[in-house]
Amino acid sequence: MVPITYYLLLAAALFCMGMFGVLVRRNALVVFMSVELMLNAANLTFVAFARMRGDDLGHVSAFFVIAVAAAEAAIGLAIVIAVFRSRGSILLEDLRTMKH
Amino acid sequence: MTLVEFFRAAPVAPDILAPSLWLIIALPLLGAFICGVFGKMMGRANVQLVACAAVAGSFVLSLLAFWATSHHNPETGRLAAIFPNPFGIERDFVRYALAYDYGTWFSVGDFRVNFGLMVDHLSGILLLIITGVGFLIHLYSTSYMEHDAAYWRFFAYLNLFVAAMLTLVLADNLILLFVGWEGVGMASYLLIGFWYDDPAKAWAGRKAFVTNRIGDFAFLIGTFLLVLLVSAFTQQSNAADYNNAGTTAQHYTAALEKKGPVTFKGLEKMAEGLVDGSADKVDLSTPIEAGPLEGYTFGGVMTAAMLLFLLGAAGKSAQLPLYVWLPDAMAGPTPVSALIHAATMVTAGVYLFSRMSALLVLSPTAMATIAIIGALTSLLAALIAFAQDDIKKVLAYSTVSQLGIMFMGVGMGIFWAAVFHLMTHAFFKACLFLGAGSVMHGNGDETDIKKLGGLRKEMPWTWATFLVATLAITGIIPLSGFFSKDAILHGVHHNHLQGLEWVSSLVYYLGLLIAASTAFYMTRVYLLTFEGPRSKEARVAHAHESAWQMTLPLVVLAVLSVVAARYAFGIDFFNMTAQPVLDNFLSPVFSATKRITDASALVALDTSRPQLVPDYLKAWAVALAGGGAAAFLYLRYFPSRVGLPDPAFIRAVRPLALNKFYVDELYELIVIRPVKFMSFLLFRVVDALVIDTVAVRGTAWVTARVGSALRYVQSGDAQAYAAVMAIALLGGMAYALIQVMQ
């Protein structure tokens, strides 16, 4: 059996890649995909721990995360499309409304 | 009723008069207020009336107070003018004095100052001089200032000055005296710079003010030292100390709580307690056990305090090293010079030391310093006066010189003679100054004696009074100046300070030299102004005699400067061994001093009278020699050499004396320049650089820079925010990891 450490390291690597993507990519869609990557890293740890503990709690959590991520992706994409319509760009640098 | 009985029954008994003593100060103060505030709309005559009447009223009250000091109860024939010394036991009355305490003026913790006024024979004499001579000078000013537009301001200042001077003299404690001390300084500043639209005159006022402040600072420190000394004395003394002083510890502390530590009577008692007794614990060489002065001896602190008072007195009384303001102060109106710089304010130092004589005689070092400073000042000023051509400048240096003689007297412990000289000097020097003013008034404000001459016939009253005053100051028998100066010189010669015996002879021989110099330059001034032909450079062809308001004071002062000599003779006119009148008269004031010198043996005071042959004759010969030399030079020698150059030695010495031995320049070099340089440095480094650049503009700069740096933080960029959060998270993680690993 593969020790849990390997799963956790893989999840950490995935999470860091996702986070790196969120922090440095300029395209909002790619940022979304990176967010999905981070969520999946989290799912991976849930499932790995569930397997280690031998119960279903982790699986359930992973399902919830997937469901919420799907909903969030739908809303996020809607926002991105709305922004693109109003401003003609989905580059994050151009969206600095938080300043005000 | 005999004359003695008449003078022994005052019109107002001392206990009735004492509560009204404040009126003596309040009248001129009220006059100053009325003239200063309403003067402009009152008109010339009314202002003059108010100002003169205020001083005249003060004079009448002073006369009553002075009379009351000698009041005897008509029924019992006993002295009524006595009050119990609050610091002494019941028997220890202050005789020939009246006092009134108007209650607490202020108190801070243990320190208390009362508004207490006291008139004894010493302050009584000064009261009469201030109000009497002051009134004459007010009268003189009504004519002298008749063309001046700001006459009302002038009279307001004059009245203010008189009020301050009276406060100084009437005060029964050091702090109230200091109020008067500062008040006369301020009034003198206002009066010297009276014509303030002329920058030179305004500068002269400022110089006087600044120089006086240096002295006042020393005065204050001296006062604080005395306060500390009194508290150290009460903590350390035992009962035997108070036996010596004629009081008890309970009495002394109770009086301290009631009257405060700086009352003259209290200081006197402390001084008596400090001299050696048989079983007492505290004397002059005892170290102080606690407090800020810990480790110093009582005598050492006393010496330090007296030296500080000397510096204070040097400022007010124009002694080395602070005399430089007085000659410059001649820029003010002439009545001011007569009132302030001859008769009253500048003698405040002499008065202070006479008042504190009981403390002064505890410190031979301080006394020797005072005497030597006085002698050196006097000599230096006399030498400078040799070459001055401005009539008022000569008189100013002469005043500095005469004050030096008074300081010699005070320093060598012949207090009554110093007061006597103060009194006679007030008369004849005021007369000389007013005479000089009259000369200027009649000659189109000409002050150069080389451009005067021959005024004898044209200004007979001025001439006659000036002659009398000149003879008085030169010391010609039988005028008052002779006796007062000789009394000082005699005392200086015969008194001795323990361990400093050489001072006595040094000061005495310097004194003879000064007497000869005085005779020389005063004769010179008189001859050049009044005798000989009229100068070709004279401003007006014929001088006119001044109005009666100006000549009357001159006559009165001239008469006074003659009859004041009466005070030098013994009461028993034919018995030459008796004490001089004034010595006898002032003895109640200086009785504590006498007791202290007898007990301590630090100073050997000699009460012998000057003898006719060795003393009087010598002094007279010296004065005649000085005057004769001047008469020969200016009546025979120089007129015969008209057109010829001066002899070589005169050409060598004269510029030196003419330029006042470059003392002002020396001060400029060693004091003013460094101070100015320091100020410049402080201005450039501390003010301009540290405060302006770093502190003020630097704060603004830092705020602006920090703001513009923080601007990048608030970019509105979600990614940047997230990056910050991520880094923070990372940091937190790293920290947690380290904690866990440990």
From TrEMBL, chain A:
Listed transmembrane segments: 6-24, 29-50, 62-84
InterPro entries membership: NADH_UbQ_OxRdtase_chain4L/K (IPR001133), NUOK/Mnh_C1-like (IPR039428)
Catalyses which reaction(s): a quinone + NADH + 5 H(+)(in) = a quinol + NAD(+) + 4 H(+)(out)
Enzyme Commission number: 7.1.1.-
Cellular compartments annotated: Cell membrane; Membrane
GO cellular component, one term: NADH dehydrogenase complex
Membrane topology note: Multi-pass membrane protein
GO MF annotations in UniProt: NADH dehydrogenase (quinone) (non-electrogenic) activity; quinone binding
Coiled-coil zones: none
Superkingdom per UniProt: Bacteria
A Gene Ontology BP annotation from the UniProt entry: ATP synthesis coupled electron transport
Entry keywords, A to Z: Cell membrane, Membrane, NAD, Quinone, Translocase, Transmembrane, Transmembrane helix, Transport, Ubiquinone
Pfam families attached to this UniProt entry: Oxidored_q2
Described function: NDH-1 shuttles electrons from NADH, via FMN and iron-sulfur (Fe-S) centers, to quinones in the respiratory chain. The immediate electron acceptor for the enzyme in this species is believed to be ubiquinone. Couples the redox reaction to proton translocation (for every two electrons transferred, four hydrogen ions are translocated across the cytoplasmic membrane), and thus conserves the redox energy in a proton gradient.
Assigned protein family: Belongs to the complex I subunit 4L family.
Subunit structure as annotated in this protein's UniProt entry: NDH-1 is composed of 14 different subunits. Subunits NuoA, H, J, K, L, M, N constitute the membrane sector of the complex.
HAMAP family recorded: NDH1_NuoK
The protein's name in its UniProt record: NADH-quinone oxidoreductase subunit K
Organism of provenance: Myxococcus xanthus
From TrEMBL, chain B:
Subcellular location: Endomembrane system; Membrane
Primary residence: membrane
One MF annotation (Gene Ontology) recorded for this entry: NADH dehydrogenase activity
Highest taxon of source: Bacteria
Keyword field: Membrane, Transmembrane, Transmembrane helix
Topological relation to the membrane, as annotated: Multi-pass membrane protein
Domain NADH-Ubiquinone oxidoreductase (complex I) chain 5 N-terminal, residue spans: 105-155
Cited Pfam families: Proton_antipo_M, Proton_antipo_N
InterPro entries to which the protein is assigned, alphabetical: NADHpl_OxRdtase_5_subgr (IPR018393), ND/Mrp_TM (IPR001750), NU5C-like (IPR003945), Proton_antipo_N (IPR001516)
A Gene Ontology biological process term: electron transport coupled proton transport
Gene Ontology cellular component annotations, sorted alphabetically: endomembrane system; membrane
Domain NADH:quinone oxidoreductase/Mrp antiporter transmembrane, residue spans: 171-237, 302-496
Family annotation (PANTHER family): NADH-UBIQUINONE OXIDOREDUCTASE CHAIN 5
NCBIfam families on file: NDH_I_L, PRK06590.1
Listed name of the protein: NADH-quinone oxidoreductase subunit L
The organism of origin for this protein: Myxococcus xanthus
